[in-house]
Amino acid sequence: MPSESRLTIDNSPPVGFHYRLAVLTWGGKFIDGYTLGVLTIALAVLPSDFGMTSFYSGLVGAAALFGLFLGSLFIGPLADRIGRRRLYTADLALFLVASLAQLFVQDALQLFAVRLVLGVAIGIDYAVGPTYLSEMLPKKLRGPLLGGLSAVWRFGFLASIVVGYFMSGLGPDAWKWILVTSAIPTAVVMALRLGSPESPRWLVQQGRYGEADAIVKKYINPEAGVDDLVEAHESGTARRSNWAAMKALFSPRWRSRTFYAGFFWIAQATPQTAIFTFLPSLFVALGLAGGLTPTLIQNAFFAFGGIVGMVVVNRISRRGLLISTFWMMAVSVAALAILPQPGAVVVVTCLCVYAFIEAVAGNLQFVYPSELFPTSIRAAGVGMAAALSRIGAAVGTFLFPILLASFGVQALMAGTVCLLVLGAVISQKMAPETGGRSLEESAAEEDRSPRAAQPEPN
């Protein structure tokens, strides 16, 4: 382990570049959240002659999530082969084209196809954005700034609800104009990302030590270097074949971390994505007329929870935050599973509390997976975790309107409670602690016991 007196990426003082890069990466997550959230209002104002049955509603709602699965699964390993920088910009070009294409769709199948492509672009950003940012940040900033990705995602989701709310009265084609608004932030962020440097950690993995050192000195600190990364690479502790990344993830050494990274994300994202996609319909099913207004209120709690999550992510151990929030989320929606006809106050309170806690917990979705894997398979690992999470989210979103129509809201809420309790139990058994360590330490070759001594949060 390098001496703390030697300046490295992990222990260098924060500089403007760190925050600028965080803002550019946050911009991608704002777009991700906006693109997924904007469908919530668009589905609610679709004209009756569009042919959006429960089946097609679930299919279109899940389309971006299926695409996200494909993008995360296949582009993650590509980023470990060709680098982070090119995909960091290219994914937004795909975003922009697909966003504009929504203006021309004529039926549910066409909308499904375009939303699928949008999901692929989101999947690329899920795999590359957190990986790239984590490899540039010192460890004291990694928790809050990576956690900020989740908070900004929630603000993107909230912004789309607000925009859709005020555009919903534009006539029978309002849904198209609501959807296409995602092109605006996409164009802005894409332009700002041009010229971003390559990840020094990735360059070291390729043996390009001089380039890596020059980037660190130019962008982070003239006195900093990559000697610690070079030593780790040449000693073999960080060396890994890029072509074997997917195989490595499921090797005996890494498969438990691969499974857990995907599982905790599934347990968090499946109910959250399904509930928020069809929130107006859910509120109506729970007896609240005019589902758009309570939808806006709950999304405000969702965004506020993201900010609180940024503050607490480095003050609580990663493992403790995961376990406690799973239990709190389960309790928050339990009343909706037990009470046959909950009143408006109970409904809004339960779902707002759930939204707040989920947002706090969700900050770890972009922090934790990046800390579980070494540089040689980090993008593949983050991409795999995101892809696995989208399986549950896509299935949950597809089935939500069908199950709601067939079994009612109580059964759906009971299933949500069961999944959250399972998340708490599995986390208790499997979640390793990664807080307060360098990336090399947190992704060490040796498996660490979940109950190992935990470092003080930094």
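Above is the first protein from milestone M3; the second protein from the same milestone is given next.
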Amino acid sequence: MSEVVTRFAPSPTGYLHIGGARTALFNWLYARGRGGKFLLRIEDTDRARSTPEATEAILRGLDWLGLDHDGEVISQFDRADRHAEVAHDLLAKGAAYKCFSTQEEIEAFREAARAEGKSTLFQSPRRDADPATHPDAPFVVRLKTAQEGATVIEDEVQGSVTIRNDQLDDMVLLRSDGTPVYMLAVVVDDHDMGVTHVIRGDDHLNNAARQMGIYAAMGWPLPVYAHIPLIHGADGKKLSKRHGALGADEYQKMGYPAAGMRNYLARLGWSHGDDEFFTDAQAKDWFGLDGIGKSPARFDLKKLENLCGQHIAVAEDAGLLRELEEFLAATAQNPLTETQRQGMLRAMFCLKERAKTFPELLDKAQFVLTESPVVPDEKAAKALDAVSRGILSALTPHLQNASWARDDLEAVLNRFAEDQGTKFGKLAGPMRAALAGRSATPSVFDMMLVLGREETIRRLDRAATAEMG
């Protein structure tokens, strides 16, 4: 079997849409799982709407998602001469023709067809004209589409889709100024890039029937087609701005880890049994076109958060810290100091559980990110009344020589609570306030282990002796 080559071909008219991100992911998974190539082409032929900023935003989005491509990024616009060359080849073969009809003539044809209740698909009077009779006037180049029979798209997702040829017009290949149209450019680029599998949104399904005419006329092999359903919001309507964030970069700024996003997007419209949580390696191994459903997938933020929490929990500490720092940069927050970085690495074991996003992770990490002296927030300050401060003051001597291991610390604190005629639960509130300045924190023992003996005692002493306003 020849090497699998897939491609992602966005138009640079805005950010990387979440639907585009999933299309890119499906192409990436299919190629990577088969030792093939994943190529990137920017379809920038619409010069009025294409911008370098949008291209940058798309590249940033793919980079964040970890979808690496092979080779250089291809610009469709830069290949316009090659597209025109193919149109002239088709003219020379008699598979295309010059059409001199003006816009006014085309509109008049359509009005007459409407009045007679006939098809408004334009039929050029020049389709079979002798080139010797061509006027000296502007013309477009049209493809000669078969007028009888049907075009059958054998689609890996949609099955066999039949379109009657009398429903297809003679598609324009070159405009009157000689520039190629998008539909021609796509086919030429896919052929020249050696694309074997075209995996794209099912809004392109009808385009496939028209593009197949160019493949046939040029004698080129067809790629395998897989047209995937669009993504809908939770309300069942096509995903749009009213459903909230749409761009991949927005999800990065909301603090979702890329691995969780990849996992969730892979599950949007594709399944492998009942598996919900899986790694990249499993996704590459399992992903196939036969697992893609025909119905639109529904975007569910709760499911995304749940998967992201699972990925944070199993992530490797240094990698998670790297991505956390990228999140801080993307949201223009202050970078971590070296002391904070080291503290985060020590604390990861107790931060990763139950954090679904990076803001939640940072929130849990306040005890290690905050600088002494710790200033308790309003809720935590209530736990530091005179009685509690007295208890903390009595506690610190017991910690001076305690073995700094979790079991030993638990034993020391439970014994101390008993001596005070109370339970450890009563100590926890004031200790959280003293160590983190918060009432909701990781376990007191975990914080003590991360902070170490010296810093723990320093914070407890300060809280015990602080003048509470």
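Note on the second protein: The longest strand covers residues 37-42.
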